[in-house]
Amino acid sequence: MSEAQPTWLTQEAYDRMLAELEQLMTEGRHDIARRIQEAREEGDLKENGGYHAAKEEQGRIEARINRLEEILANSVVGDAPATHGVVEQGTVATVLLNGNETTFLLGSAEIAEGSDVTVYSPDSPIGQAILGHKIGEEVSYFAPNGREIKVSILKVEHFKG
Prior knowledge:
single chain; alpha/beta; 2 domains; 5-stranded mixed beta sheet; two-stranded parallel ribbon; 3 helices; 7 strands
């Protein structure tokens, strides 16, 4: 697999993710530590559902913290790139896929949080196939089941968030 590209983020998305990270690292961790301690005080941990639920939640919080730290550390913040008719990270592509026209943002799901746009990662098979290609070009990629899929790039737009 190719090396992952930096994640493009709007300033709004970056600020939202940074606030979530700070909340999880402070209040989130403090709250889950308190819940684990309270559950421990109830006694036998083997059959303590509250303890196990709190530990699972702690794992989810830590995984989200790690993901946010990774995204923020490897992000480029600013306006969406100018399209110039080329599919790039942070652009919205309209393609002909399996005979159907479909539109999606090529980037990170965090960029589009709060909108109804579909998002594909630049590291996904379709993302890797169309990245850097122009309107009017046809490319193909192999789906996980081994089937070759042809994609025609119809339109590339600036993501408006």
